[in-house]
Amino acid sequence: MATIIETKKLNLWYGDNQALYGIDSELQDKEITALIGPSGCGKSTFLKTLNRMNDLVDSCRIEGTVMFNGKNIYGDKINVTELRTRIGMVFQKPNPFPMSIYDNIAYGPRLHGVKGRKKLDEIVERSLRQAAIWSETKDCLKKSALGMSGGQQQRICIARALAVEPEVLLMDEPTSALDPISTGKIEELALELKKKYSIIIVTHNMQQASRISDKTAFFLLGKLIEFGDTEQIFNNPQDRRTDDYISGRFG
Questions:
Q1: In which order are the strands placed within the sheet that holds 168-172?
Q2: How far apart (Å, rounded) are the C-alpha atoms in residues 182 and 185?
Q3: Residue spans of beta strands (DSSP E) within 42-116
């Protein structure tokens, strides 16, 4: 597998509070990488460094490098809007725009200059199919996305991210607000999407991490404690703290 994102000596502060300490990692193309660890350990903060979402926090300061396809995303002459197109994000709580399902999916392509109705129709259908929700939405594309169930809304948000054809999909606890059936659908979707995309997912659900991820990274107190194949991390962790967390003895 080829490395798509690599971090080197990545440190991050919010004001005077250091949240990440010297993170070195290599994230592989067309794999699912799970980020696990207790609340406040830095995993979501790390996730947001990968497409510069932390730029939106005034007090945030970052040192080190994040290489995406060999280019430092914190270097000069980086178009952040383009970066976030190539590295899309799905948040913990479904956040469809207060507009129709169609317009939710077409929003990004329109922003990037796609005008023709035929082309937009193709993008909307392709994206909803990729997000495994076309059959549930094809007859109600003009209806508000806010009228869908939570699980459907989250898949619409995934479709919206896919509409601009990213290379990487960041997912910040995408199933934590969903029921078990919807969670299962999102997990099945992630396994299908990794054939085309690299997926990095933050999860508190150890079973979810073990079911769907190829690699697992365990964070604690802003540090990357252990990173490797999911099977090895769950069955034979090299650090006692990883073992304690996975087995529920942590704390």
A1: 87-90, 168-172, 198-202, 32-36, 215-220, 223-229
A2: 5
A3: 60-68, 71-72, 87-90
The set of residues, in sequence order, having a beta carbon less than 8 Å from that of 136 and lying 6+ positions away, is 152
* Each residue's pLDDT tens digit, 176-230: 988 999 999 999 999 999 999 999 999 999 999 999 999 999 999 999 999 999 9
Give the pTM. Answer: 0.94
Judged by DSSP in three states, 122 sits in helix
Which residue range forms the structural domain that includes residue 83?
3-95+167-246
How far is it, in rounded angstroms, from Cα 164 to Cα 82?
A: 10
Question: Helix, strand, coil % (nearest 5) of the chain?
Answer: 40, 25, 35
How far from chain centre, in Å, is Cα 30?
A: 13
Q: Is 27 exposed, middle or buried (0-12, 13-18, 19+ CB in 10 A)?
A: buried
For residue 201, the domain's CATH number is: 3.40.50.300
